[in-house]
Amino acid sequence: MNVMQAIEKTVTNAGIISSITSTIFIILLGFFLRKKNIFTDKFGKMLSKVVLTVAIPALALNSFMQPINNDTLKEGMNVLLWGFIIYIILIFVAPLLYPKQDKDKKEVMGILTTFGSTTFFGIPIVGAVFGPKGIMYSSIFNIGYRVFLYSYAYIRMSGLKMEMKNIKKMFLNPVVIATFLGLFLWLGQNYVPHVTVQTMLNGLPGKGTSSVAFYRIDQTALWLWKPLNYLAQLSSPLAWLSIGVTLGSISFKQAASNKLSWYYSWNKVIIVPLFNLIALSALSMIGILPMSYVAIATIVIMMATPTATVASAYAISFNRDPVLASNASFLSTILSVIMMPIWIALLEVINNSGIIK
């Protein structure tokens, strides 16, 4: 299949196009409602809290309610390994992207470049495009992200030693709890008692029966899986509405006047995911870290997200160029909204052309 055929197949794929338009339209709706003062800035923050404390934990837990086999297990472990490797690489390399800045600003920009809004911005988009498997891979990938965000980033931005309260914050976060719980349940399902049930597909009875772990609630306890699934389905629209509200609350003119923020946004939304795409494709093709298209595309989308909210909060809380961090966060969000459909389409074209499978 040549490139033009791959592009044609992508733009005629109703699933991909509807995922892209859903993201854009709902973000624009949030932006419009904020500009009309129908939504307040406080309402946008409340939406964010609902997404991070309820919807995404439910999304992460439900994503692990699926069978395990050698291929998905091996690929999941490769995703986990890369999740640690890439952040170690970026911790050292990202500051080098700002050679003209002083040491302090170079460190701040390096941390902002390393850590994106993978949970709040990335996972809902991955879920909309790639479904449960994409969510599962994104949750596994995020383990390394959270370890370094709540340890290295906190220590460097605060100038303090790691505190017990931050360690608690790392492990008692609802998303982290749901991710680790889901991961352990997924990994352990072959070693616990099984029950024979009628096969269920998307909550509806299928043909035949299957033997599953007793805690596979998608098969054994629909009364529990259904409400969790409804909550999980809230994550994408609420997250996108909140992003739109955030964009509608900040002055674009003020943020756009800072050239360094534009340069940072280019690095964060284009250079970092491009490096991941090239590196993972190469490692997969030579067999060092083999991954499927869904796994690679999930990671690329996660790395194409704007500034992490926590990283921005560190900069503001510890007075580490707070204005610059706020402007960078705003502009990278705008650029990410523009680039995300392009990344999704590009990845689908690459997949259709057979470069990664």
Task: Output the keywords.
357 residues; mainly alpha; Na+/H+ antiporter like fold; two-stranded antiparallel sheet; 16 helices; 2 strands; transmembrane helix; cell membrane
N-end to C-end Cα span: 13 Å
Mean pLDDT: 84
The CATH top-level class label: Mainly Alpha
Strand order of the largest sheet: 1-2
- Report the portion of residues in β strands: 5-15%
CATH architectural arrangement: Up-down Bundle
Order of helices and strands: HHHHHHHHEEHHHHHHHH
Which stretches of 5+ consecutive residues score pLDDT under 50?
Answer: none
Count the strands? Answer: 2
Gyration radius, to the nearest Å?
Answer: 20 Å
* Helix percent band: over 70%
Q: How many DSSP H or I helices? A: 16
Major pleated sheet: 2 strands, antiparallel
General form: globular
Per CATH, what is the topology?
A: Na+/H+ antiporter like fold
Q: Find the structural class using helix and strand composition.
A: mainly alpha
Count of spatially separate domains = 1
Q: How does this structure look, described?
A:
This protein has helices spanning 3-11, 14-35, 41-63, 70-93, 103-114, 118-158, 164-171, 174-188, 217-220, 222-233, 235-247, 252-256, 259-285, 293-303, 309-317, 322-353, and strands spanning 194-201, 204-213. It is mostly helical and 357 residues long. The longest helix has 41 residues, at 118-158. The protein has one domain: Na+/H+ antiporter like fold. Helix 3 (41-63) packs across helix 10 (222-233) and helix 6 (118-158) runs parallel beside helix 15. It is built from 16 helices and 2 strands. It starts with a helix and ends with a helix. Strands 1-2 form a two-stranded antiparallel sheet. Helix content is 75%, strand content 5%. The chain crosses the membrane at residues 12-34, 46-65, 77-98, 110-130, 136-155, 167-187, 230-248, 269-289, 295-316, 328-347. Pfam families: Mem_trans. Belongs to the auxin efflux carrier (TC 2.A.69) family. InterPro entries: Mem_transp_PIN-like, Na+/solute_symporter_sf. Keywords: Cell membrane, Membrane, Transmembrane, Transmembrane helix, Transport.
